[in-house]
Automatic annotation (TrEMBL):
InterPro entries found in the cross-reference section: MetalloPept_cat_dom_sf, Pept_M54_archaemetzincn, Pept_M54_archaemetzncn_arc/bac
Subunit: Monomer.
Protease is among the record's keywords: yes
Keyword terms: Hydrolase, Metal-binding, Metalloprotease, Protease, Zinc
Active-site feature positions: 137
Upper classification of the organism: Archaea, Methanobacteriati, Methanobacteriota, Thermococci, Thermococcales
Cofactor note: Binds 2 Zn(2+) ions per subunit. One is catalytic, whereas the other seems to have a structural role.
Keyword Protease among UniProt keywords: yes
Name of the protein in its database record: Archaemetzincin
Names of required cofactors: Zn(2+)
Length: 186
């Protein structure tokens, strides 16, 4: 069965990895895809991605390494999950990033944590947000663009409020596109 690989980059709690893997696995099983969590990749090889002025890591630097791992292991797609704070040029931060041609994506838990916003730690809320970002970036990997529906998981999140508002699922329009795209890919 074709597989979506889930890869922790740096230390990521098993409960987060398992929750994301289970949700993604259940959803994508309808397309004949399963999930598999791979061993942690250390952060050190990505030190060139670190911008000391910003105190953040350039997200795109992670994707080629994830794509190489995907090819080596034989996955259909790969999703990196990290606690590092990520950014892209022209943006203050990113919750995640995907490259459809590499079939690779990464999400950052850093700004998904309630404590980042001065709130009490809440692992259930963190899991919910991580699922949404994972589903969003995997949607991009499988050819979906941003959706105008604020409840659709493919809606662009400008802030954590947008992430909290949206569902972890694709709207009917995006789900239909995804189904067509995956018929070709799987």
């Amino acid at each position: 069965m074709p597989v979506i690989l889930i890869v922790p980059i740096g230390e990521v709690k098993n409960t987060i990895l398992e929750t994301v893997s289970n949700f993604v696995g259940v959803y994508y099983s309808r397309f004949g895809l399963s999930t598999r969590i791979l061993p942690e990749i250390p952060v050190e090889p990505f030190s060139r991605a670190f911008n000391p002025i910003r105190g953040q890591y350039l997200g795109r630097v992670f994707l080629p390494t994830l794509a190489s791992l995907r090819k080596k292991v034989g996955g259909k797609a790969v999703l990196g999950i990290t606690g590092l704070d990520l950014y892209e040029e022209g943006l203050n931060f990113i919750f995640g990033l995907a490259n459809p041609s590499l079939k690779a994506a990464i999400i950052s838990l850093h700004r998904l944590r309630p404590e980042f916003y001065g709130e009490e730690p809440d692992e259930e809320l963190l899991k919910e947000r991580a699922i949404k970002e994972a589903m969003h970036e995997l949607g991009h990997v499988f050819g979906l663009g941003h959706c105008p529906d604020p409840r659709c998981v493919m809606h662009f999140s400008n802030s954590i409020l947008d992430t909290d508002l949206k569902s972890p699922l694709y709207c009917s329009t995006c789900a239909e596109k995804l189904s067509k795209n995956l018929e070709v890919l799987v």
